[in-house]
Structure formats: structure tokens, C-alpha cells
Write a structure and sequence with these properties.
Layout lengths: L4 E6 L3 E6 L2 E6 L5 E7 L5 E9 L4 E5 L2 E3 L9 H13 L1 E13 L8 E12 L12 E6 L3 H10 L3 E2 L2 H10 L9
Parallel strand pairs: 4-9, 6-11
Antiparallel strand pairs: 1-2, 2-3, 4-7, 5-6, 5-10, 8-9
């Protein structure tokens, strides 16, 4: 069986390819990596963002996130996490730690995602995203976050399932130990 890669279509941001009999997509910008920022304010509130996602035709609840290297060629995971957290939520981290990196949908895309933990947050702005984004920031008390998310789902919002992994990591390190 041939494992040569054939481009079936290439747009501004995605490329559809066939490798052997398998079709998948690749990002055409950046490093093929996205970053999700797990952030808890000094008041013990988890930061979530709400925005309309065109592919779903619905508003979603997510943790702050973005692509690594899409507009900044020399981006690192840490740089992208800092920038996205400030742009989307208006909070700046004093420290950012990379927790885990892995595929988002290994049967459909070569994209990988990095979970990062932002610490020592300082409020520096209102958030809401950059031009063209319409992001609503939600700071939800940590202990109420799961119930709040389920209420949002009942209201018709789409929940990014990575939220649940992020909430688990609010309390624990990826090795299962408690966050100190």
C-alpha cells in the first residue's frame, strides 16, 4: 500500500490530504500546534471563554486557547499561551507551565494541543479577543465550575470536551498528584 501524501485541497488555513487510503487535514499556518490555557484567578475563579464557532453554528464554552505560530513565526508554547490569555481574558500570567501535549483528533488531523497552566495572574485588560473575535469572558468560582458548565450546556451552548481535562488539571498535575 502506498503511503505517499497527496494534497486533495488547500485553503488559507487547512489542507486536506490523502496518505494511502486515509484522508485527514493539516494546518497550513503555524506549527500544527494549539495551546489551551488552564487559568485560575487569585479569587479562585476558573477562566472560560464563550464564542461563536462557525463550524458548529453555535456558541461554545472553552478554556482560553489559540494556535502556536499562526501570526508569530518565532512563537513558543509559552509565548502563545501568554498572548492568548491576555487577548481573550485580559489576565496576564506571571508563570506558565507546559503540562501535556497530544493529538486533538488523531483520526482526522495532525494537530496537537498543549495544555498549559497559567499561574500568578494579574488583571491587565478586559479581554474579548482581537479584531473579528467576539469573546465573552467568564470567571467562575472553581467549586461551581462543573455545575456551571452543565447549566451552560442545558442552555444550548456547545462544551469543548477538553474543558473536563482542564478542570481535572486545575486540581492535579498530569501525574495525578495534587497541585501544590
Amino acid at each position: 500500500m502506498s503511503h505517499l501524501k497527496h494534497t486533495l485541497y488547500e485553503g488559507d488555513w487547512l489542507r486536506l490530504v490523502r496518505i494511502g487510503h486515509w484522508e485527514s487535514c493539516e494546518r497550513t499556518h503555524g506549527q500544527g500546534m494549539a495551546v489551551i490555557v488552564i487559568a485560575v484567578t487569585p479569587a479562585d475563579e476558573v477562566l472560560f471563554v464563550e464564542q461563536h464557532r462557525i463550524p458548529l453554528g453555535a456558541r461554545t464554552i472553552e478554556m482560553p486557547a489559540g494556535l502556536v505560530g499562526d501570526d508569530h513565526a518565532q512563537d513558543t508554547l509559552i509565548d502563545a499561551a501568554r498572548r492568548e490569555l491576555i487577548e481573550e481574558t485580559g489576565w496576564s500570567p506571571g508563570k506558565v507551565d507546559v503540562l501535556l501535549i497530544g493529538p486533538t483528533s488523531s483520526g482526522m488531523s495532525n494537530e496537537r494541543i498543549a495544555f498549559v497552566r497559567a499561574r500568578d495572574l494579574t488583571r491587565v485588560g478586559a479581554g474579548g479577543g482581537v479584531a473579528g473575535e467576539d469573546i465573552t469572558v467568564h470567571a467562575v468560582p472553581r467549586q461551581q465550575a462543573p455545575a456551571w458548565l452543565m447549566q451552560k450546556q442545558a442552555e444550548g451552548f456547545e462544551l469543548d470536551l477538553k474543558l473536563w481535562a482542564g478542570l481535572w488539571m486545575v486540581e492535579r498535575n498530569p501525574d495525578g498528584s495534587a497541585v501544590v
